[in-house]
Design brief:
By secondary structure, the chain is an alpha+beta fold. It contains 14 helices and 13 strands.
């Protein structure tokens, strides 16, 4: 099997989007991917193509699941927003009102909104997690509750790449009694028939695409930047260098889990069963593009569908109003804007291209967003990770063409 196939359907008025998607697959830029789009509550295209395995022996299927990394944060945030809407969670209350053990080591004044806006100063672990411990939720949240914050809570925005899901997820568990993954399944995925899962079972793992992650080998360009003196570097490049060398970046992305001393490259843990079965509500949601587009399509269309409500329109409005706007000390001092958990402006990606957009991106290139003005739900999934300059190329091209059509 050598030629990638493109399957699915596309309404004629969006045929140029199909052309862009097909080119990304057939050129080899994307190994395997899915793309779905809702407009005004109707699915107008659902495409999939390429390969779902590293050996290029399996075609991507309609129901192929793939890890979309931080797109998961939008789903996790929505669980918390349901509790806020019901009055069971107050974003301006202290975290300790719901999680008493958290009030120690300089975290006593942390508010719920600090979790949702990446301002809790807890964007990493003070010491890495034990190897292969993804499924030990209690150990992980206990570790977070006891540790000192890396930055004073509430003072700076620093992207909580992995810890966001544990912090918000533990609030959900303390209030509701269910784990975040179970809550999402029962209150959102099952009710609205959304193919998105946080914590897979064996049958669901069989639907998973392999992730083709960037090599752990040093990028020559990055190595050059790190070796040059600051006075030789332009201001923006200097910021990149300083961030890459900072403890903030290291804590958020590099020093998450213990590795063997002789390992020269990061573990391929996102392809492991341990990672897939665990609930990591910031980073290991698995879904189809159609499921993601439907999720955001419901939010874009007022928050209700078929007589059931995901969120009130008033809640959506409040959650998509910017609450923090950087500079983000983890994400290269960039002006990322967050509402209550949702990205409302994410540089380098489609989110922020138009006013009224919100959603989340993933570090391998997946993108999900809603547009309140055009009533759009957008879902793009892929399994090959690209470097930062190319990371969101396909979703950017699709979004730009979409707005030309609309």
């Amino acid at each position: 099997m050598t030629k990638p196939l493109i399957e699915g359907f596309c309404n004629p008025e969006f045929s140029k989007l199909e052309d862009i998607f097909a080119k990304a697959i057939k050129s080899g830029f994307d190994d395997g991917a899915g793309f779905a789009l809702e407009v005004e509550g109707k699915e107008v295209l659902n495409l999939w193509g390429g390969f779902s395995d590293k050996q290029h022996q399996k075609n991507w299927q309609k129901d192929t699941l793939v890890n979309v990394f931080s797109v998961t944060k939008a789903m996790t945030s929505t669980c918390a927003l349901q509790l806020i809407e019901s009055g069971n969670l107050n974003p301006n209350a202290l975290v300790s009102d719901y999680w008493p053990e958290y009030a120690c080591a300089g975290k006593e004044n942390t508010k719920v909104i600090d979790f949702l806006t990446h301002r809790a100063g807890m964007f990493g672990f003070q010491s890495p997690l034990p190897k292969d411990s993804w499924e030990d939720w209690d150990m992980i949240v206990d570790k977070l509750a006891k540790q000192n914050p890396i930055r004073e809570p509430g003072t700076t925005q620093g992207y909580h790449a992995v810890t966001f899901g544990y912090l918000v997820g533990e609030l959900v568990r303390r209030i509701d009694g269910r784990s975040l993954g179970q809550y999402f399944k029962e209150e959102i995925a099952d009710k609205f028939d959304i193919d998105f899962i946080i914590g897979l079972n064996d049958e669901e793992i069989n639907r998973c695409a392999d992730l083709l992650l960037l090599s752990g080998k040093p990028n020559p360009f990055i190595q050059l930047i790190l070796s040059l003196p600051n006075w030789l570097l332009p201001a923006q490049v200097k910021i990149v260098k300083e961030t890459l060398k900072s403890k903030e970046y290291a804590k958020a992305f590099l020093e998450i889990m213990e590795v063997e001393e002789d390992e020269s490259a990061p573990s391929d843990y996102p392809n492991s069963n341990s990672w897939r079965k665990a609930e990591i509500p910031a980073a290991n949601g698995h879904g189809t593009a159609s499921g993601i587009a439907k999720f955001f399509g419901i939010l874009a269309s007022g928050g209700s569908r078929d007589g059931q409500r995901l969120l009130k329109s008033e809640t959506i409005k409040e959650a998509t109003t910017p609450k923090t706007s950087g500079p983000d000390i983890v994400l290269f001092q960039a002006p990322y804007k967050f509402g209550l958990g949702y990205q409302v402006d994410a540089p380098f990606s489609p989110i922020g291209m138009k006013e009224g957009m919100f959603g989340h991106t993933g570090i391998a290139g997946a993108t999900g967003f809603a547009d309140l003005n055009y009533k759009v739900g957008f879902g793009f999934t892929n399994n090959r990770q690209h470097s930062l300059g190319k990371l969101y190329r396909t979703s950017n091209n699709l979004a730009k063409k979409l707005y030309e059509i609309l």
